[in-house]
Amino acid sequence: MSGSPDRGTLLTAEGLFREYGSFAWRVLRRLGVAERDADDVCQEVFVTVHRRIASFEGRSSQRTWLYGICVRTASEYRKRAAHRHEVSSDGVHEASVDASQDEDAALREARATLDRLLESLDDDKRAVFVLYEIEELPMADVAIAVGCPLQTAYSRLHAARRDFDSALRRLHAAEIAR
Amino acid sequence: MSDPTRLGDPDSKSPPSLQRLIDAGRSDVPDRDRLRNLGARLGFGADGLPAGAGAAKGAAGLAGGAAKITAAVLGGIGVGVGALATGHLAKAPPALVTASDVSHAERSPLQPGLDPETTVAAPPNEDPSSPPAVQARLPSSTSGARSHPVATTLAESTVATPAKAGPVATTPAMGSLDPAVISGGAGSLRSPADSPPKDTEFSLLEQAQRALGGDPRRALDLADRDERQFPVGALAQEREVIAIEALAELGRADEARARARSFFQAFPGSVHGPRIAAMTGFDAGLHNP
């Protein structure tokens, strides 16, 4: 766990953006924010950071706090978007279509596959899985970011790995059968 | 309990195919231009990236000062549109920044975003890092304040927003939202290169904010247009504040109240709650615990 930083070392919202903006964008994508909406939702995250930073209490690192905002914002986005259209499949599709040109096809395909597998997880498990496996946060910070007890976070990780593995096996089976 | 080995770690027992998937996820970051644009949208100077990347470095640094004040003091639309203003101002042709009709107190939050050479008679103590100059502007100064109802500091909205309905419940204006400052009086602060090809969420709300007070119908139209174009936008709360304000100005109190009710349901705990309560007669305490 990162511990409570000295108040004097705290970053401003702008500092957080400079330091972690790209990570925030990335975690939003892995949490199911469609490519076309990623900038808007990332902006929403930092507007929230603006609103809340004065009340940041230092109970976690600012990075963990920011990830927590990302998790909640992505969750709200998915709830909102679910009323309009099926976000997740759009996101997966777009990831393979709109990715920047300098990414090679294999990488795009891998990300699309990753997102498809992540879609097999429910939101709670997905958040823990993404923060731990991809963002590489310590589990103690993951628990803080998603707002659950540490033991619950471990349980979710365990279940998420199981579900992810099942989805991967199904995917392989489907590819073989093709 | 110690953390388990991650699936993507080289010493994990995961199959290479799985490790590649995880690696692909880890390497997925927005490109520099995208991040820069995002930073600019947020008002983090013309360049949201570390210094050295652009000619607007100085302005970006100054706008950063504004961002600090925004974060510390502003709650509400001042956050969103104020950030917009600083973003534009950081890139603004200095000669267009006049805002001569704005009092020092009103200007203070935005001044850090201006080129110091063009700042209009800023008091010497108007240091971007001295939020007290801003925070001291509580409603006791209402007599000298212009009416920019949506612009409200957190302190203002929670401490001293007049508890009465209607547009007369004005709070002291925050300079970050002063239309004169945002637009230079002619809507011309953006250079052609900065002008978006189509409406952005920020630009729509900026126009809507400007229309408030003079043309509430237009403000409402713009807010509704924003809602159609950006239903999941980052500034939904700010849009609703503008719409509610416009309805109140149009005398459509019932609609303002209905929209306020929806706002409290959608955004419980919003920093705009007290402001909306004051405009519509809603009791923020009941809806905004």
How would you describe what is shown here?
The complex is a heterodimer of chains A (178) and B (289). Chain A has 178 residues and is mostly helical. Chain A has 8 helices and no strands. The longest helix of chain A is centred in the last third of the chain and has 28 residues. The N terminus of chain A is likely disordered. Chain B is mainly α and 289 residues long. Chain B contains 14 helices and no strands. In chain B, helix 3 packs antiparallel against helix 4 and helix 11 packs parallel to helix 13. Chain B is elongated.
Number of strands of chain B: 0
Q: Assess the beta-strand content of chain A as a share of residues.
A: under 5%
Q: Please give the radius of gyration of chain B in angstroms.
A: 21 Å
- State the share of residues found in helices of chain B, binned by percent: 40-55%
Low-confidence stretches of chain B: 46-197
Low-confidence parts of chain A: 1-5, 87-97
Radius of gyration of chain A, in angstroms, nearest whole number: 17 Å
- Span from first to last CA of chain A? 45 Å
How many helical stretches of chain A?
8
> What string, H for helix and E for strand, traces the elements of chain A in order?
HHHHHHHH
Helix content of chain A: over 70%
Q: In percent, how much strand structure appears in the residues of chain B?
A: under 5%
Largest interface: A-B, 52 and 52 residues
Rounded mean pLDDT score of chain B: 57
Q: How many strands, what sense, and barrel or not for the largest sheet of chain B? A: none
Number of strands of chain A: 0
The oligomeric status of these chains comes to heterodimer
